[in-house]
Every structure is written in structure tokens, then in C-alpha cells.
Amino acid sequence: MKKMIPDFEKMKHVGERISMLTAYDYPSAQLVEETGVDTILVGDSLGMVVLGYDSTVPVTMEEMLHHTKAVRRGAMETFVIADMPFMSYATLDLAIMNAGRLIKEGGADAVKLEGGLDIVPIVKILTRTGIPVVGHIGLTPQTASQLGGFKVQGRDLNSARQLLEDGQALEQAGAFLLVLEAIPRQVAAQISTGLKIPTIGIGAGLDCDGQVLVFHDILGLFKRFKPKFVKQYAQLRLEGVQAIQEYHKEVKTGLFPSEEHTFGLSDEVIQKLYGD
Ligand code: KIV
User: Where in the chain is CATH 3.20.20.60?
Assistant: First the structure.
């Protein structure tokens, strides 16, 4: 049964861990829904793993909408969260308009935004407008260059304290879920125990209330790099290459298509068509 917002807080309350996985299109959403994963994130990581950009920065609203719609069609019974792309929430007006589009046109159940105290006014106005918001702190890929690259965050006292404050501020502003990316396990644990809303970790250790990973990472479909926090549960890229090599060989050697994959005509029609 489709999870709803109160279910996530209940899960935290009873100690049931929340599973989240990204999906970006119809077949990946169908696969994820079949497994019973609690919620799907249409992450702007799609810019890197399916569109081939170098970062998530170039991802546009139109691209997010396009992929969110496909995911919704593939996973009608799953709670879907859509990422707001870089610059789509740079002002309050832009945030309301674009978040509204992801919900109304894209079919998302909630939107996710990167940032801490700085985005509190945006989170407040979205939640007051009726748009459910997921926060995202720690390593925030849209502003990774300001953070000095794709690095673990919250390792020194000041930045750890800042993350704790950010978490509190986002909860008070109305966020109902909080993604913690690439932060030390102890900091994530303290944020998680201090909040009523569930935390979802990615590279933030086992003490978060749930976990999220990228679809292409866990299936071994993305070859450019593999962060330390990624566990590959399959090597589908290798299997895919082998299958395509086989197809290529069979086309070249005439082994494909065989009779099994070919349509024929009855002798009677052949005779009428070509005569004697
Ligand atoms: O874009 C994304 O996939 C994300 C997750 C890594 C949390 O934001």
C-alpha cells in the first residue's frame, strides 16, 4: 500500500527503517515499485547517471518534469519525491511556481530541496502552500563547489554544530523528511535522535532512520566513479555489455533473427503473390 506522509513519522516512532531509492523513468520506477521500497526519489542525480552531465547543476525544470512524469506512470502506488533542480528555488516566487509544477504536472507527492538555514523561508512558504518538503543537508551536490568539492561534511566542531542547527531549523520550518548526505555517522546519529521527522542517510551511517542510494549505483550501471558509501548489489552493466556483444555478433553472422523471431506467409498467399 502506498505510504503517506504520516506513515514515515510513524515508522521512525516504532523503529522501522525507511528504504528510499532513486528512479528516473518508467521501467526503473516499475522495478523499484515491485520490490516494495518505501519511497522513490526522482533525484537530480539523473543529470549525471542518465543524461551524462558532469554534475547536477545543468539539470532543468523541464528535464525534472519529464522524468518525474515517467516515474509516476511506472509507480502509481509508491510515494514519489522529486528534486527541485539548481536555481529553480532561487526566489520564493520561483520556488512556489516550480514546486507546484512538480506536484501538479509531474505527479510527485513531495519535493526535495538542498540547503539548511538559508532555505528556511522557502521551506516555510512551500509547506504553508500545501507542498510537502524534504530537506537535504551535508554534502549538497548543487553547491558542491562552495563546499570545496564532493567531500564529507561536518567533520569539525563548527560544521557539525551547523548541521545540527540546520536539521532543527528545517524541521521547524515544516520539512517532513531530511536527507543527510556524506556526514560522519556520529553527527548523523545526533541529528536523527534530536528530530521528530525521519532522517534518510546516504553516506551517513546506520543510525539514520532510513537509507537512500542511486538506482544505477546499486545495480552497477554507472561506471564513471563509485563513492565509498555505495554498495553494488549487481553488475548489470557487465551483463548488458555481454548481451549487446552477443546480439552484435549474431547480426553479423546471420544467426539473428532465427525462425523463432521471424514472421512467415502461408503457401497459399505466397503462391497468389508470386504465381508459379
Ligand atoms: O539526486 C539524488 O539522487 C539525491 C540523492 C543522492 C539523495 O539527492
Answer: 5-234
pLDDT at residue 276 greater than cutoff 70 = no
What is the b/e burial string over 110-145, where b = at least 16 CB atoms within 10 angstroms of the residue's CB? bbbbbbbeebbebbbbbeeeebbbbbbbbbbbbebe
Q: Which three cell numbers stand for residue 197?
A: 521527522
- Express each pLDDT in 208-218 by its tens digit: 999 999 999 99
What residues form DSSP beta bridges with 110?
81
Residue in this structure with the C-alpha cell 541529528, named with its chain if needed: 191
Residue pair 182/202 in contact (Cβ under 8 Å)? The answer is: yes
Ligand 1 atom with the shortest distance to the CA of 44: 1
Residue nearest ligand 1's atom 3 by CA: 43
- Known catalytic membership, residue 181: yes
Q: Is the pTM of this model over 0.90?
A: yes
| Residue 66 pLDDT exceeds 90 | yes
What pLDDT is stored for residue 148 in this prediction?
80
Over residues 189-201, the mean pLDDT reads 98
- How many secondary structure helices (H) and strands (E) does the chain include? 11, 8
List pLDDT tens digits, range 134-169: 999 999 999 888 888 888 999 999 999 999 999 999
Q: Where are the beta strands (DSSP E) in the chain?
A: 18-22, 39-42, 79-83, 110-112, 133-138, 177-181, 199-202, 210-213
Pick 5-234's CATH classification: 3.40.640.10, 1.25.40.10, 3.40.50.2000, 3.20.20.60: 3.20.20.60
Q: How far is the CA of 177 from the centre of ligand 1 (A)?
A: 14
- Tell me the C-alpha distance between 3 and 5, whole Å: 7
Would you say the CB of residue 212 lies under 6 angstroms from ligand 1?
yes
